[in-house]
Design goal:
The structure is a homodimer. The first copy, chain A, is of the alpha+beta class and about 120 residues long. Chain A is built from six helices and three strands. The first copy, chain A, has a three-stranded antiparallel beta sheet. In chain A, helix 1 packs across helix 5. Chain A is elongated. The two termini of chain A are about 30 Å apart. The first copy, chain A, binds a DNA duplex (30 and 30 nucleotides) through helix 4.
Chain lengths: ~120, ~120
DNA sequence: TCAATAGTTAGCATAATGACTTACTATATT
DNA sequence: AATATAGTAAGTCATTATGCTAACTATTGA
């Protein structure tokens, strides 16, 4: 993966990792606490956690034998911004698109819609 | 990939596909138009497009030999909503987190921060 | 009708992802 | 000191993703 958004979206594309985010949004937790609800070997889960850390979405500190994880909001905000931006552009074109949709439905008797 | 968000985030995790979205946000385009700026074989590009269509982010209609693609805003809005929701939860905990951060930095002389 | 254009299908190679087990280290607890 | 707990590391394996080339179909234009 190349840039910031690549790795962020990649990280969010997995339900386990999204669940971790959802959990951490309401406060920090240890690795075992985070792991508990997931029916999956610990090492496997750790790699999901590593993906989140590598992307900068999650930070952690280890105290004694316990590692405590928490969310870092930056990437989240950035991604939300990108989506908002796209949507803004798209919405500013709504009228033109509607015109075009008319055009299309008028012109195309016998168009296909499938892949 | 299992649910709506999985496939959406998965689709957005690729720079080529995000570029297509960025292009389509400002108006519909044919397959060749979309392909042009990407240094990649057409069949390869078509598969990216298929990912976007399968996810419901892009729709298309074929008229004659030309397939015209356009954006479907639904998934975009949904994902933005999910991010906003997480952020909201997180932000409502800011005070508590700061308290906790104090706690941690007070308690931990000799913690590690690495993976 | 013949050639060019637009897109599609099929098949293959390689890399990345996600899961597992086994074995290990470091820190509490008793 | 011995045991339990919390987390890591290493290595394997199956599946999915991403890229390619070659060959093919359907439309349009000369």
């Amino acid at each position: 993966m190349t840039n910031q958004l690549d790795s962020f979206f990649g990280a969010m594309a997995d339900p386990t990792r999204r669940a971790v985010i959802e959990r951490l949004a309401s406060g920090p937790a240890s690795v075992s606490e985070l792991h508990k609800p997931h029916d999956m070997a610990l090492p496997t889960f750790l790699r999901h956690l590593k993906v989140l850390e590598d992307t900068g979405i999650v930070r952690s500190i280890k105290k004694g034998r316990v590692r405590t994880c928490h969310i870092e909001a930056g990437p989240l905000i950035e991604a939300q911004g990108w989506l908002a931006w796209q949507r803004e552009i798209w919405e500013s074109r709504l009228d033109r698109l509607e015109t075009l949709a008319h055009q299309i439905s008028k012109d195309s008797e016998g168009e296909t819609n499938d892949a």
